[in-house]
UniProtKB/TrEMBL annotation:
Domain of life: Bacteria
Stated name of the protein: Phenylacetate-CoA oxygenase subunit PaaJ
Pfam families, per database record: FeS_assembly_P, Zn_ribbon_PaaD
Gene3D superfamilies according to UniProt: Fe-S cluster assembly (FSCA) (3.30.300.130)
Domain PaaD zinc beta ribbon span(s) in chain numbering: 139-183
Residue ranges constituting the MIP18 family-like domain according to the UniProt record: 18-78
Species of provenance: Cupriavidus basilensis OR16
Length: 185
């Protein structure tokens, strides 16, 4: 076998690593995996041949990133995938557009309203210019997140930040239940 044949062979370790990492839950929202949230960006070989797991935090100050890196290491170690390293990449910045449809459904079932619409970045992580401008204030009923308990859009925001910085706290005015809303960004 020559070097060209080696390059053409599929890397079964990479495929196995993707399968193992499918099951790594987000530590703050355990019903969704880091892949479903879009935190898991890539599994690849580094220049030295070591398996690299590329992750991007939901925001640069996310306190769960060290736990996520530890959980990734434990999952790969348990599967006998060695050596490996976790690489955190901040650019392009994570966006809720990277969340899968399954993640949005699971958030709703868990009692967290998923982000509405998209941020215009599509599902493919690409670099783009970020322009800072004030967000439009939600006034119309159709701009409010639906209550994950009863489905009503008759909701109000109680606080800009909920149980974590990436969520806002809302209350349904029909069933009166409070809920987190995963903010789109």
């Amino acid at each position: 076998m020559n070097a060209a044949d080696t390059l053409m062979e599929p890397d079964t370790t990479l495929a196995h690593a993707w399968t193992v990492l499918e099951a790594v839950p987000d530590p703050e929202i355990p019903v969704v995996s880091i892949r479903e949230l879009g935190i898991l960006r890539d599994v690849r070989r580094g220049a030295d041949g070591t398996l690299e797991v590329v992750i991007t935090p939901t925001y640069s100050g996310c306190p769960a990133m060290s736990q996520i890196a530890e959980d990734i290491g434990q999952a790969l170690n348990a599967a006998g995938i060695l050596p490996h390293r976790v690489v955190t990449v901040l650019a392009p910045a994570w966006t809720t557009d990277w969340m899968t449809t399954e993640a949005r459904d699971k958030l709703r079932q868990y009692g967290i309203a998923p982000p509405m619409g998209n941020c215009g970045s599509g599902h493919t992580p690409t670099e783009k210019t970020i322009r800072f401008m004030p967000r439009a204030v939600m006034h119309a009923t159709h701009d409010r997140p639906a209550c994950p308990q009863c489905g009503s859009v008759h909701t109000e925001r109680l606080a800009q930040f909920g149980s974590t910085a990436c969520k806002a706290l809302y209350r349904c005015l029909d069933c009166r239940e409070p809920f987190d809303y995963f903010k789109p960004y």
